[in-house]
Amino acid sequence: AATPETVWTHYGLTPEQAARGGLNPKMFNSFLDGSKPSIESTAVANATGLCVPSQGLSYPPGSVDQIPSLTRPRSEGGVLERKGMVEVISSLDAQGQPIDYDIRMGVWVTVEGETEYVRNCFEEYKAQTDPSGRYFTLYKRWHLIGLEVGYSVASLALRGEPTGVATCWKADVVATAKRDLKPGEMLDGEGGYTVWGKLTPAEDSLRVGGLPLGLAHDVKVVRPVRKGQSLTWDDVQMDTGTRAYAIRRELEKQVRPASNGTIG
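Above: the chain sequence. Below: its structure as tokens.
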């Protein structure tokens, strides 16, 4: 498994290149341990109302051309529990080998041709669809991250339009143990050695009292936690005087009465 010390080898970067760019090893490690994909999927779900896999992201492997077939409901031959879900595609096959024409550094969205006219357009334009001709993936293979953030800043400053804002609470990112944790140990947050962030349906997180990854830094473990187990508020000793803690608890308080599988 990658650590903050070994992370650069996974990206083909030298420590000198990382230092030149001011790159944060914990942040880049969070891409590999599943935390950042969970965070980004949570942001998408809470902005769009898309649903979340009940057991978290499954990372089905596939090339760009295979995404339309993979991101269909299971009932139609894909991997999704249902239509309208978030998921992340792996760029490695089951043997850990790189897949040709992957989407590792890109972004994508699969759309369904719900009408005959749209499906005919897919066919006429020679679009790469699933075998049924019903699902098509729009993608950008290179997402330039920091170079693109200026668009969001300009959109907000000039037009008053955010490029994304939460409209509901469909998804949460719950701190999950990377190894067995003992009472007295300190959690080190996203991309560290102790926990990673698991994408979780918000109603499930609320029901069990899941500890959000964003608050799992510099807090003490007070109960034994097994590797792979998601942490709860009761597993840690929190500083309850912080503004972040107060805001999170207020969110839980506001949505709890309406919790019926759809929050927000």
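The beta strands are 107-112, 135-140, 171-177, 186-188, 195-201, 217-221, 236-237.
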